[in-house]
Amino acid sequence: MALTANPHVLAWIERCVALCKPDKVVWIDGSRAQLDGLRDEAYGTGELIELNQEKLPGCFYHRSAVNDVARVEGRTFICCEKQEDAGPTNNWMAPDEMKAKLRDIYDGCMAGRTMYVVPYSMGIVGSPFAKYGFELTDSIYVTLSMAIMTRVGQSVLDALGDSPDFIKGLHSKAELDADKRYIVHFPQENYIMSVNSGYGGNALLGKKCFALRIASCLARDEGWLAEHMLILGIQNPEGEIHYVCAAFPSACGKTNLAMLIPPEVYREKGWKCWTVGDDIAWLRPGPDGRLWAVNPENGFFGVAPGTSAKSNPNALASTMKDTIFTNVVLKDDGTVWWEGLDKNPPTNALNWKGEPWDPSDGSKGAHPNSRFTAPAKNCPSISPEFDNPQGVPISAIIFGGRRARTAPLVTESFHWSHGVAMGSSMASEKTAAAEGKVGEVRRDPMAMLPFCGYHMADYWQHWLDMEGLLLNPPKIFTVNWFRTDENGGFIWPGFGDNLRVLEWILNRCEGKVGRVESPIGWLPNPEDIDITGLEGVTVDTIRELLYVDKELWHEEAAGIREYYEQFGDKLPLPMLESVKYMDARLEYPKFNLK
Ligand code: OXD
Ligand code: MN
Questions:
Q1: From the CA of 450, which ligand is nearest?
Q2: 66-103 pLDDT tens trace
Q3: Which among 279, 370, 446 is the best mutation to test ligand 1's pocket, defined by most ligand atoms within 8 Å of the CB?
Q4: pLDDT at 433
Q5: CA dihedral 347, 350, 355, 361 (to 10 degrees)
Q6: According to the model, what pLDDT value does residue 434 have?
Q7: Which residue out of 69, 208, 229 has the highest number of ligand 1 atoms within 8 Å of its CB and is therefore the one to mutate?
Q8: What is the rounded CA–CA span in Å between residue 26 and residue 42?
Q9: pLDDT reading at 354 higher than 50
């Protein structure tokens, strides 16, 4: 029975039912009893596997299809009316053409199945930040995952009332046919259609599809920002908590930073870190002229491999109850394992494909993109402000990257538009280990390349315009934890010690510490990065980590200009000016660069 009388919702669902032809429709009220019932049903069909309830209470296991283990950027579309509004970095198709194609694929796709109607909220229900959506899906795995990752059920329907202001999402596993797999966004209709995938990143529509791609369009129209950023609270020994947001391309330790544990010398002094979000931040100007952030999600969809008691004890602790594990190793005692958890790969276990696994044969047991879906409230470092409907005020925005030699440990932008330019040219690079050569630089502006729902250059303009809405904007910084020495070893210890850099950043925000001018931005005085208790790191090491190499930065400027070319006339002038200015400054005699 429908749980709302909202005519807009009911009319849309009726159209979807007519298209997908499910045997029945079940509304998700968010109650424990209903969710547990669905879980038990899925144990019966093998869609889910129960784990050892003594060791992992409330946890279960899921395998996705072997051809369906990651986001599919090549099949992800932004279907707005005009192609130029999607921009050169998104796939585009005219909405009518795409709808005709999808209509054929969806026709009867739920025959013999149940359609679950999942009402959900991104953000705390009733808060000024919250936005509501519905996901219609034929997957119990997706339904239960949405109940972890978002706030679902009756309270959402009550808050929505009769309003037409909701995001529509229609998901079907269909045949899991990779050739007919589409993840499609219609930003002008607030509509998401995802078909032929059951993998979380494609199928949990609240996350990347809504909270980033659709929300980035809403944010542009409404004067806020929807960003691929973690939110971290940093408590100093005086008990004050300051919040930062940070964007990183993949494989740069974003989840570790979001759940940072201070190094011992800091802990002893009373420093603490609080996790507000690990992946997505919605940022709005507050009445005080500052930028305020919420994490619109309610759980973590984290990469399992590499997560360990050493690398990220908070993430690991988050997975100890009420968690869904996907595509990891299933042990014979009903618990789970993945590469990097510890040094003891299990025997008598099944790999992510469900095959008996012999760890000595060199194959991976867990898929490299295997995941845990864990409630945020399980995290030992979850912030007391996590459920604050007003969010938290942001002191600093940090853009990261993985650069072997170019980018310094930390750089402060000269001003807001310089910071936006820094974010737009964010990059990671690979080293071609065999030849020892610096490899290809991949630009990932604001870590939003696959997630920006409109033209990237318009998005940068929106970032520039945001300054005008903020009386007291956060300062913008870049960081790079990944500088290497001549042997390719990392110079900076990273992990918890990154707090030493965050401390400098916050001191800068409060005007408590000085800075040194460089052609590319403000740098710390090397003495101002606290290295107490750090073995093998001296002030000279910090100096090396802050070094600006003239030739590499000329190359960088050329690389950024080349990257910007694809955006043509839409590229905001301040961005081009910023790179030209930097290029020229590299030659200023006052910097005396070699
Ligand atoms: C993620 C991603 O899964 O960014 O968070 O791909
Ligand atoms: Mn992400």
A1: 1
A2: 999 999 999 999 999 999 999 999 999 999 999 999 99
A3: 279
A4: 43
A5: -40
A6: 37
A7: 208
A8: 15
A9: yes
